[in-house]
Amino acid sequence: MRRPETEPKVFTRQPSRPRHTNLATVCPETDTNRLKGALAFWSASRGMGGGSPVRLVTDFWQNAPRDLKILAVAIPILLALAFHPSLPKIHMGGSKEKQAPQEAAEIEAPAAPAVALQTVAKTVPQATTLVDDVPQAPVRVINAKAESKVKSDDWKAGLLSHFGGLRQTLAERAGVELNEDFRSGMEDWKTETDPATAFSFDQTGFVRPSGMALYQPSLGLKDYDLQFLGMIDQKALSWVVRARDFRNYYAVKLVVVKPGPMPVLNLVRYPVINGRVGRRIERPVRIQAQTDTLYRIGMTIHDDTFLVTVQGNVIDSWTDQTLTRGGVGFFSGAGEASRLRWLQVSHQYDVLGRLCAYLAPYNSQTTNGSW
Prior knowledge:
Helices cover 32% and strands 28% of the residues. With 371 residues, the protein is α+β, with helices and mostly antiparallel strands. The strands form 3 sheets. Strands 2, 5, 7, 8, 9, 10, 11 and 15 form an 8-stranded antiparallel beta sheet that branches. The chain has a 6-stranded antiparallel beta sheet with strand order 1-16-6-12-13-14.
């Protein structure tokens, strides 16, 4: 009986496992797992002996966590700032001019040959008497401990001066970000009267300014960006920048010049120096507004330049050198009523600014550089 023919077995070679796997598809997208994956990939690649050094470094960098990449870029920049030529250098000991006499005094003269001394003694027997009559120069006694202490003090002073300059450089580049949502009370606000009467709260979380109130953490600032969210209930929304005190500041107002369902707005600004109001400047605000519009207002203050935006549109810019430092605040004039929801004051708040702020934190009482 003939056996049925069966199909011949075909042996196929299974594809070999790739030597390098993409850890980004295996590990979750978290910094810890990415770092562990990068280290495991590095160890496995070294153990198998595969891949060029450039390939290994490239793969490690791609799988490294974000914080490690930021530190790898920021640390060389900080080292460059630390060793910038404009920073004070450490000088060990005194100057070369001061050390020259000391070195000359401490060098001993070469001893004369013994035969020459005997010859001089025979030919000039009274040499001893002549030498005794010559006044002797004072002998300088070198105190090794005193010299060491002076050099140590000079070294410490130079080190402190060097790192003092480094801290100043970090403080000038450090970022600052101040946020206020009025939920923690009015402890950070400075008023001429009782702080409890400077603001009133409504049920929706907004505050209504009455008299002038200054935001204390910002009073030492020089350059900064201001953003806040507010609403006009009646006539105008008013704020101040570069406020040194209650008698010196720049006042800015968003004023309703034609009320109605779609009000017409103007921007009004004027300086107040020693309590005296300066010239008023008005600019039209060409935006679509309604009676219940929430206005997102921004200001950029840098050196003597001021810029105002409303709803992201540039409304006005000018220069003024009268006040060079001061914080922000809010007030309401006669017949005015407005509401505020939050405000933010920031300055050079980027990655490098945050890192410098971590090393030299901002202090609202003592400020340096642009603070």
